UniProtKB/TrEMBL annotation:
Similarity remark: Belongs to the MICOS complex subunit Mic10 family.
Function: Component of the MICOS complex, a large protein complex of the mitochondrial inner membrane that plays crucial roles in the maintenance of crista junctions, inner membrane architecture, and formation of contact sites to the outer membrane.
Pfam families: DUF543
Name listed for the protein in its UniProt record: MICOS complex subunit MIC10
Length: 97
C-alpha cells in the first residue's frame, strides 16, 4: 500500500484568500485563548507553589516562583504551538490503487 499526501488544491488556496477576514477573527480568538490559558496556568502554578511552600518548605519563596514559572512556561509553549498551527500545511491521504 502506497500513500501519497496531497497538500492544498487551487480551490483551497482561493478559498483562503477569499476568507481573509475570517482568518483575522480566528487569530484574535487564538490570542484570547492563549492569554486566558497562560493566566490560568500561571495562577494554578502559583497556587500549587503556595500550598507546597506552606506544607513542605517552611514558607520559602522559591516554590511559589517555581510553580508560577512552570505555569507561565507551559502557557507560552501552548501559545506557540497554537499560533504556529496557522502555518502548517494540512494534507489529506489518498490511497493509491
Amino acid at each position: 500500500m502506497l500513500w501519497r499526501v496531497y497538500a492544498y488544491t487551487s480551490r483551497d488556496i482561493l478559498w483562503s484568500f477569499l476568507t481573509a477576514g475570517n482568518m483575522a477573527d480566528e487569530l484574535g480568538r487564538k490570542w484570547d485563548r492563549c492569554l486566558a490559558d497562560t493566566a490560568v496556568k500561571t495562577v494554578t502554578g502559583l497556587g500549587v507553589g503556595i500550598v507546597c511552600s506552606l506544607l513542605f518548605f517552611k514558607r520559602r519563596m522559591w516554590p511559589m516562583s517555581f510553580g508560577s514559572g512552570l505555569g507561565l512556561g507551559m502557557g507560552y509553549a501552548n501559545c506557540q504551538h497554537d499560533l504556529r498551527s496557522l502555518y502548517l500545511i494540512h494534507g489529506r491521504r489518498v490511497k493509491d490503487q
